[in-house]
Amino acid sequence: MLPFAQPNTICGPYRTSSDGSMIFDVRIFDLHPCQFGAICNEFYDSKHVQNYSHPPLCKQWCLTGTCTQMNEIVHMFSFIHRYPCRYGAQCKDINNEKHIQEYEHPFYCSNGGYCQDTSSDHEKAYRHLPMCEDSQRCLKYQEHITNHIEKFRHCIPNCEYENSCVHLHEREHYENYKHPFPFPCLITPYRCPLYQQFTMAKEKQHLSSEIRQHCLNFTHVCPLGRNCTNNDPSHLETSIHVLEDGELSNKERFRFLFDP
Ligand SMILES: [Zn+2]
Ligand SMILES: [Zn+2]
Ligand SMILES: [Zn+2]
Ligand SMILES: [Zn+2]
Ligand SMILES: [Zn+2]
Ligand SMILES: [Zn+2]
Ligand SMILES: [Zn+2]
Ligand SMILES: [Zn+2]
After folding, report:
1. Are β-strands 103-104 and 83-84 bridged in parallel, bridged antiparallel, or unpaired?
2. Which of 14, 42, 63, 123 has the fewest CB atoms within 10 Å of its CB?
């Protein structure tokens, strides 16, 4: 049996039974057949797999790792002989030749060195070039030097802390990593009077444009933290709700807000 045959797992169009002994293809018959059939390279893409049906895995290949009919074109187009790597483009073994031969991996993103899409769906569905160390400040990128942009990617990477970033006021960190909120107000996490008026006002239009602009352009730490029930999109986009478990540095930094 191949090493991927873990009990009760689903990968691409396949799943294994609870004892791990058999592999079934999950086939849904009212789907359109994928035009690439057994040579489709998109099994790692769950959207694609949900929308198109694919041929089953070759049983002999599944159980033994080899197939005696590899020279028969009809057989090779009727049954799949490779398995999608469950890590997709984020696979750590993507440069390991042996692994590449055994598992199917995504194609390179067509935007090459210009790709800016760092959403996790996109990162998993497409392979990407290695990052250029200078990212968007790279002179060759700004001058559109083709042979450099063909080799390196120039996007701003996501900050790994996302909504609970502890480097709130470090402008350099802020410029080097993408955050889901605007640059924080310099007063925050201390109580910013503009933000306080903004959150308390029922009719925001009646506030001065200075207050409205300030609260849209800068992020503030919401004093209610995790207990906040304000689902207004403009509040969620411009407020940080810290105090996640295990975020000790944030807790310490903002302690006075929560234990006055
Ligand atoms: Zn397909
Ligand atoms: Zn076969
Ligand atoms: Zn892999
Ligand atoms: Zn891309
Ligand atoms: Zn560069
Ligand atoms: Zn950050
Ligand atoms: Zn402020
Ligand atoms: Zn809030």
Report:
1. parallel
2. 63
